[in-house]
Amino acid sequence: MSHNSFGHIFRVTTWGESHGPAIGCVIDGTPSLLPICEADIQTYLDKRKPGQNRFMTQRQEADQVKILSGTFEGLTTGTPISLMIENTDQRSKDYGDIKDKYRPGHADYTYMEKYGIRDYRGGGRSSARETASRVAAGAIARKILGGDIQIKGALIQVGEHAINRDNWDWAEVNNNPFWCPDKAMVPVWERYLDDIRKKGSSIGAIIEVHAMGLPAGIGAPIYGKLDSDLAAAMMSINAVKGVEIGEGFNAARLSGEENADEMYRDDNNNPAFYSNHAGGILGGISTGEDIICRFAVKPTSSILNPRRTVDKFGEDTEIITKGRHDPCVGIRAVPVGEAMMACVLADHILLHRGQQG
């Protein structure tokens, strides 16, 4: 299987399966002399780990990270950083009844068609379990970005229930199980997802990620655009089916006058913008405004209600997916989106240094 790596200078390769002994990643291109320890990484893994509340899968994984290489006396050495997270709560028996059946919405059929073999235990390599490795890599990327660049993500829509953007409060995001910036929407989502969960079904969501403090001039034109790399990174997250930057698809409804971000000189005589419809990127290069990216996550494909399918022998059949699954996998996608934003920005900052000094 190829294509397990992403990035240019800051390059991440993930490895492992959902029900294997461990998962992890190898990170190449990290500058030396950055302070890093396992606790720095664990902070972000704890945001993503399963079993934290009733709205997540009840698989109990500590997601405890181990640094295997690339550091010495608390500093990065510039050599590849290898990180490992042991799997401790696999229940492979939950998947014995469906080992010969293709789950609708999953990669079972496509993996079998491509490779002639698949790991039916939780989806193997195609499982969202793989995203823990990305979150760990994102923690390293944040060290490269430094404290002046802040990355924050939020859940802004679950099913048809979207937040009121007038109520947006970043301080509220860490006060609820949804990473929701609108306090009034939290009880609505709680009732909604309780009902979804009791029905044995699932629902999709939209996540929004902001990067604040990135200077202007990061990125490249044509085939090295910052926004194209961001879109590819977000689209690579499991279950993501749509990505937009800034106004995104809404830009199709705006006039040229409405969409153009007019400029002025700020108090320090620097160029600034009255608005940010571009999402902080023009011509593939950062403007100095906040980078804003949204992505849509489809409903969790593993549901308790029966679905029609076929088996590997070509026979029509019916399937019920047992096991422990998220009623809305978009909740745990918030820290994953933050991590992918961090990895892309770190990569582009290193590329910028390489070209511009």
- Helix count, per DSSP? 7
Elements, N to C (H/E):
EEEHEEEEHHEEHEHEHEEEEEEEH
Total number of beta strands: 18
- Strand percent estimate: 15-25%
What's this model, at a glance?
The protein is 24% helix and 22% strand.
Characterise this structure.
- The chain is of the alpha+beta class and 357 residues long.
- Helix content is 24%, strand content 22%.
- The chain contains 7 helices and 18 strands.
- The protein has a 5-stranded antiparallel beta sheet with strand order 1-2-3-7-4, covered by helices on one side. Strands 9-8-10-16-11 form a 5-stranded antiparallel beta sheet.
- A hairpin with a 2-residue loop joins strand 5 and strand 6.
- It is globular, with a radius of gyration of 21 Å.
- The mean pLDDT is 93.
Summary tags:
single chain, 357 residues, alpha+beta, 5-stranded antiparallel sheet, globular
